[in-house]
């Protein structure tokens, strides 16, 4: 098939899933066209089936805000028409689903029918989409999509309860490339960070409030009171300064390293003993899956889609949001030499369920179902 993919080309989970999906489809022989405002972070190699079209946003003195959605819709019209795409798959409702709707209507006037699939990733529904300034457009563009997927049952239910949705939503979970995300031998790195054999704890996120990075630091402080350990914080975002200040106040700066945005996060995960994800809300928790694939057990909250990924007592433990005491106690239990290797195996075993080779065929079947439906309704 010839497939167009629209996403945020950044380190965020939705962009990562969209890019990895496109790469996996291209490896299976589909022609995949990414249509984004810059080259997706993980699209950093050559494959004959991968194409990239940049959305150029022309600004003008009259525009206080550059009209990105219009530029995207126009680029979509051009790419779909000239590359003769069979399907458009947009990731993240705002503004991708509405730009896709506009492109679809424009193409209809030239007799071109393009089926559109929208994948909901989480914050487009749970945080931003519900806001009154976006809600009517989000509801409309989800309902106008030919197919809709969500990354967990929890997100599907959330979408039905917060929006007036008439479409059926297919759940297709996040996935992982186990060839890329696997424990690598990086002993020199571990020795450099933990010269005294300390346990290594990792958190990766975009440092937004919803990630509760403050809880990570407090849990780490509690762990440190019992055993020697180091903390690596990967990523960057609005909470970073606040977190640095907190580390100073708790006098743990020598034990905490801020690594910023990293492309090869699997290298850091390869030497980690524990991953902490204390999020307020998490529609799936791709970062936790990446950790598990690298044999790292996870301490997480029991919110959103996390119980659909985690197996309590096997891949790690889940606690209520904000229950720092419970998360600290569970972290110490996992880190004990008696239990650590069992949890590492448990994490990897669960990650295997989300192997890209298991999830990709679900997307391909769904693509076929939606394009066939669209062709049938055209023939009527
Ligand atoms: O986690 C983030 O803040 C990034 C966000 C995004 O929209 O890019 O990630 C969301 O999509 C991921 C991929 O489907 C999910 O694994 C994350 O759980 C989800 N984040 C939230 O729901 C907060």
Give structural notes.
The chain is an alpha/beta fold and 380 residues long. It is built from 15 helices and 13 strands. It has helices spanning 13-27, 68-83, 93-108, 123-126, 135-144, 153-162, 187-193, 213-224, 240-249, 265-269, 286-293, 306-309, 324-335, 340-352, 356-379; strands spanning 2-6, 31-36, 50-54, 87-91, 116-120, 147-150, 169-171, 199-204, 229-234, 256-260, 274-277, 298-301, 316-319. Helix 8 links the parallel strand 8 and strand 9 (229-234). The radius of gyration is 22 Å and the shape is elongated. The chain starts with a strand and ends with a helix. Bound molecules: ligand GMT. Ligand GMT is lined by residues 12-15, 17, 92, 121-123, 151, 174, 206, 208, 210, 281-286.
Keywords:
380 residues; alpha/beta; seven-stranded parallel sheet; six-stranded parallel sheet; binds ligand GMT
In short:
By secondary structure, the protein is α/β, with parallel strands linked by helices.
Give me the oligomer status: single chain
Strand order, sheet with most strands: 3-2-1-4-5-6-7
Q: Strand percentage, roughly?
A: 15-25%
Straight-line N-to-C gap = 23 Å
Shape: elongated
Which range best describes the helical content: under 10%, 10-25%, 25-40%, 40-55%, 55-70% or over 70%?
40-55%
E-strand count: 13
The largest sheet, given as strand count, sense and whether it forms a barrel, is: 7 strands, parallel
What is the element string, with H for helices and E for strands?
Answer: EHEEHEHEHHEHEHEHEHEHEHEHEHHH
């Amino acid at each position: 098939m010839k497939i167009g993919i629209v996403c945020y080309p950044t380190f965020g989970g939705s962009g990562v899933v969209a890019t990895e999906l496109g790469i996996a489809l291209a490896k299976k022989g589909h022609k995949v066209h990414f249509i984004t405002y810059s080259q997706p972070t993980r699209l950093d190699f050559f494959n004959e089936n991968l194409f990239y079209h940049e959305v150029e946003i022309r600004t003008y003195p009259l525009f206080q805000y550059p009209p990105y959605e219009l530029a995207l819709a126009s680029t979509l019209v051009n790419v779909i028409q000239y590359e003769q795409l069979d399907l458009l798959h947009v990731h993240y409702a705002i503004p991708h689903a509405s730009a896709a709707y506009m492109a679809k209507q424009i193409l209809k006037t030239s007799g071109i029918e393009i089926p559109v699939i929208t994948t909901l990733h989480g914050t487009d529904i749970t945080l931003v989409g519900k806001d009154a300034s976006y809600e009517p457009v989000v509801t409309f563009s989800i309902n106008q999509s030919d197919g809709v997927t969500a990354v967990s049952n929890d997100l599907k239910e959330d979408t039905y309860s917060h929006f007036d949705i008439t479409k059926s939503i297919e759940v297709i979970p996040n996935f992982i490339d186990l060839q890329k995300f696997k424990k690598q031998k990086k002993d020199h790195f571990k020795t450099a960070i933990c010269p005294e054999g300390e346990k290594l704890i990792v958190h990766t996120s975009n440092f937004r409030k919803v990630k509760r990075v403050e809880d990570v630091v407090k849990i780490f402080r509690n762990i440190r009171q019992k055993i020697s350990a180091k903390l690596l914080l990967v990523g960057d975002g609005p909470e970073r300064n606040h977190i640095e200040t907190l580390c100073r106040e708790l006098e743990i700066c020598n034990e905490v390293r801020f690594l910023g945005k990293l492309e090869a996060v699997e290298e850091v995960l390869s030497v980690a003993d524990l991953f902490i994800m204390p999020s307020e809300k998490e529609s799936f928790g791709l970062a936790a899956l990446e950790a598990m694939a690298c044999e790292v057990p996870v301490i997480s909250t029991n919110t959103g889609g996390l119980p659909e990924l985690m197996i309590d007592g096997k891949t790690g433990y889940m606690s209520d949001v904000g229950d720092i005491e419970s998360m600290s106690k569970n972290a110490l239990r996992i880190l004990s030499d008696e239990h650590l290797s069992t949890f590492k195996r448990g994490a990897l075993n669960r990650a295997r369920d989300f192997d890209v080779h298991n999830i990709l065929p679900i997307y391909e079947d769904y693509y076929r179902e939606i394009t066939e439906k669209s062709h049938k309704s055209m023939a009527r």
